[in-house]
Every structure is written in C-alpha cells, then in structure tokens.
Amino acid sequence: MALLQVENLRAYYKTEMYGVSRLVRAIDDVSLDLRPNEIYGVAGESSCGKTTLIKVLSGNIKPPLKVHGGSVKYRFKTAEVNMANVSDEELKGNVRWKEISYVMQGSMSVLNPVRRVIKTFEDIISTHEGIPNRKEFRERIKEHVKKLGLPPDVLNSYPHELSGGMRQRVAIALATVFYPSLIIADEPTTALDVVVQRGVLQLLKEIQGESKNTVLLVTHDMAVHANVADRVAIMYAGRLMEEAPSEIIFKRPEHPYTRHLISSLPVIGDKSIKNALEGSPPNLANPPEGCRFHPRCPLVMNICKTEVPEMRDLGGSHRAACHLLGGKS
Ligand SMILES: Nc1ncnc2c1ncn2[C@@H]1O[C@H](COP(=O)(O)OP(=O)(O)OP(=O)(O)O)[C@@H](O)[C@H]1O
Ligand SMILES: [Mg+2]
User: Fold this and answer.
1) Which residue in 102, 196, 112, 126 sits closest to 157, CA to CA?
2) Pocket residue to mutate for ligand 1, from 24, 53, 240, most atoms within 8 A of Cβ
C-alpha cells in the first residue's frame, strides 16, 4: 500500500511581465506513488520542477504557485490526508514535522541565524508538544542529536559557527525529532564536497534503515541516487520521463534523457570525451509541443514533435514515457 499517491498533478506559477501574465508549467501531469520504507530519488536538471514538486507534496503552496489539477493523498498510520482539502491547522498541528518533514534546499533556511541551534529545536518541538520540563526536554534533544552521531555541543552553537556539512546534519536531525513517516530532502548534499556528502548521505540512510520510514531525496546528482536511492524518478521540464528501481534505471535506462544523465556520470579509468546534450531545458511558460525533450533528443522522430508520449509500463516497476517504446501499453 502506498504512503503517498500523486495523480495527474499540475502546479503552475503565474508570472507577470510587461503587463502580460503567463503560466509557468513547473509540474505538468505527474503521477507517482511513494511506498513505506523506501528511499525514492527524484532527478533532473536545474529548473525541471523538483523543488516545485516538493512544495506541493509538503503543502507549502503560496502564490504565485497554484495547483491546477490532480491529487496528492497520504495514508499515514493514524490518518488519511488529502492535501486538496486539509486545513491549515491540521497541516501545522498534525502533519508538518510529525508526519512529513522537509529539509529545504539550502539548510540555513530552517535554522534561525541569530539563535543557538538548541533554540530552533525547542521552537519546533514546543509548537507541537509544549515544554513541560526544560531540563528533561533538553536531555531528549541531546540524546537525539547524539544518537545521530553528532557532537552535542552543536546545540550550543550558532548556525554560522558550523561547517556546511554539520549544518546539513543538524537540519536532518531537526527533521527527524518526531520520526515522521516521510522525510523530504531537497538537494541535501549539493553545496558540500564529496567526503562531507558521504557523511550526510550515510546519516540519511541510517535514519531510514532504523525507522523504516520513507525518504524522498531530490537531487540533480545521479551519483547520489546511484548510492542511496531504492527507486529513481527522472523529471524533465515539469514531466516524469522514467521511473524504476535503482539497479534497473542505471543498468537498463530506456528514455534517451535518462541515458544522457547516466552517461555523464564519471567512470573510473574512462578517458573518453563526454558528449554534452545540445541546447538547454525549455522555457516552461511556453514548453514545446509533443514530448518536451524532443528539441534536444538525439533520437527524435516526427511523432515526438506533436504527440505527448504516454507513460508506458515496462514491467518490474519500470515505466517510461517515450515514443521509441511503441504505442499504448
Ligand atoms: N516563484 C516563482 N515564480 C515563477 N516561476 C518560478 C518560481 N519558482 C520557480 N519557478 C520556475 O519553475 C520552474 C521549476 O523550478 P524548480 O525550482 O521547481 O526547479 P528545480 O528542478 O528545483 O531546479 P534546481 O535544480 O535549480 O533547484 C523553473 O522554470 C523556475 O524558473
Ligand atoms: Mg530545486
């Protein structure tokens, strides 16, 4: 049974330029499921809609972003939540942090720069539980941080005193105080060097392995997905292009865009020159007809220019949207 079911989701930004209003189709007909106890990776180049998808899934929808169709439904252990009609109070009181936590792109945003880290923990926990006994409360936070392998003195630091890697780990520690059903992490390792990245990913993996919850890991870095994701979804220009278990997507990618992303991964000993894809992702205020990848696709056919390819089930939890895979499934 799925923890989250997303069906035909559309979410657009409304922009005004020179008095002309336009819709930026950042999420355009995306359907996917997240299962309990998995790390689900979302990949794709910059501007393909990854952060927008997370905003909608976590209920952080503010103008100019608006949902234009589809559904987002959660089945938590204690309740079912339909994001289309959940109240703000329900979202704040029972869903955010407790069931869904969100490590935002750029970990500084969750930490208050002028308060010690412990205060941010207290602020978040107290809005949900109150602080009955400050000493016990601080002990609990200390234990949590220690359990995740962080030195307890990070709690007394100000965010700017911590290294980028440590800040990111603190953000993850914060996101896990209530052991939520779903942890969403947006580019958690992007600003970090490779060695520090490994520590942050290890932490995410350990937490997931222990609490058996679901992690939605968003990053454009395919090497990160190869290391930690159980399943991977590939997005391009607001659409899902392919989805499969990790070992399948890296061994037998079907979509030309996925193949391009994977072929650009470095391989030890390979000295060949990588071919970059020509062009850049389309402007989502005016996306191309047909397959959105067709202007850059090395295997483009006539049909790709006019018809949107259907998502085709390839068996073994593998699906892809490409006319090369034939007609309707
Ligand atoms: N506030 C906004 N107003 C208008 N358009 C926006 C806004 N925020 C994002 N967009 C547009 O929506 C599209 C998707 O952006 P989004 O941030 O979701 O991409 P992303 O995949 O997370 O990119 P990155 O890898 O750079 O983080 C882009 O075309 C972007 O320009
Ligand atoms: Mg983003």
Assistant:
1) 112
2) 24
